Amino acid sequence: MCTSRTTLRAGALILACSTFAASAQQPTSRPLKQPSLTDEQQRLVEKLVQACAEERRRVIQEQKGLIAELAKPVRGSGKEAAEARRQQPAKKRAAKERLKELQDQRKLFPPTLPRKTEEWRVGMVGILDRSKPIADIWRVDQVLSSDELLVHFHWNSGPLFNLPAGMSGESQTFWLKGHPTEGVVSGQKIDMNDVLLHIRETKTYPTAGGGSNTTFVLEVVDPVVIRAVETALQSARTKEKE
After folding, report:
1. How far is residue 81's CA from residue 175's CA, in Å, rounded to a whole number?
2. Are residues 210 and 126 in the same domain?
3. DSSP string of 182-213, one letter each residue
4. What is the pTM of this model?
5. Are 192 and 150 in a shared domain?
6. pLDDT recorded at residue 153
7. Quick one: 58 and 147 in the same domain?
8. % of the chain exceeding 90 in pLDDT
9. Res 107: pLDDT
10. How many CB atoms neighbour CB 181 within 10 A?
11. Do 196 and 220 touch, CB atoms closer than 8 A?
12. For the CA atoms of 60, 64, 67, 73, what is the dihedral angle to 10 degrees?
């Protein structure tokens, strides 16, 4: 459980994924179990090892596709085409430099959850897809315990200024676990867009009017998992030096 602010931002997760990448290159790809980890946490560590490696491959492939597109000649005439041709060499250089950064084993993007929740499955782990200009709002519906909330997640594919006026887009209620609730009240907005989340299970809860609703339980990944990642990196580096 998280007893303090545990919103693990992308920077910390990149460090974690870098650790996974380094350890995954060793002959034993399965991370050694840490004494402080439960079996469930150990399984999550192993899941993240695979997820981070897959994310790294995906991002590199996308960058290679961008480089291939930039290699094509700019067609057309007029000011816009001329400006595109003028900028093309600089964009090529920047894209190639970015590819080098991505290929560095120490640098890795965190895994992302699919943008469409209908593609979510129990066991997935990642942050929300931030690849498009979006404005996401997490609103507390109900405080359930010291670290559990019912949250109404609203996301939009349009520009930031489209929200919250009109609240166009999609929305869904989730059971959020592992977020401190001290000082949190119903209706409050919380920032969860860069937090590493584990889709742990589904849960059915009663709704007003005597009905019920089944939703995903999203659990904030415990910092102990991140510390286990750091330990794995240190161990891998020590073995390389021996």
Report:
1. 50
2. yes
3. TT--TT-EE--TT--EEEEEEEEEE-TTS-EE
4. 0.66
5. yes
6. 82
7. no
8. 29
9. 54
10. 16
11. yes
12. -160
Q: What is residue 86's predicted lDDT score, i.e. its pLDDT?
A: 93
Tokens describing residue 139: 């609103």
Contacts of 227 (CB under 8 A, 6+ apart): 36
Q: Which residues of the chain have pLDDT under 50?
A: 1-12, 14-16, 18-28, 132-135, 157-168, 237
Do residues 138 and 197 both lie within one domain?
yes
Alpha-carbon distance values, 126 to 11, 60, 134, 186, 188 (Å):
13, 18, 17, 26, 24
Total number of domains in the chain:
2
pLDDT of the residue at 240: 52
d(CA 177, CA 229): 22
How far, in Å, are 53, 67, 198, 219 from residue 127 at the CA level? 15, 26, 9, 11
Q: What is the DSSP letter of 139?
A: E
Whether residue 139 sits in one domain with residue 166: yes
Name the percent of the chain in helix, strand, coil, to the closest 5. Answer: 40, 20, 40
Whether the CB-CB separation of 214 and 204 falls below 8 Å is answered with: yes
Q: Classify 80 as helix, strand or coil.
A: helix
* CB distance 234 to 47 below 8 Å: no
Judge if 71 and 151 occupy the same domain: no
By the 8 A CB rule, do 97 and 34 touch? no
Is residue 145 domain-shared with residue 58, that is, in the same domain?
A: no
pLDDT for 158 equals 47
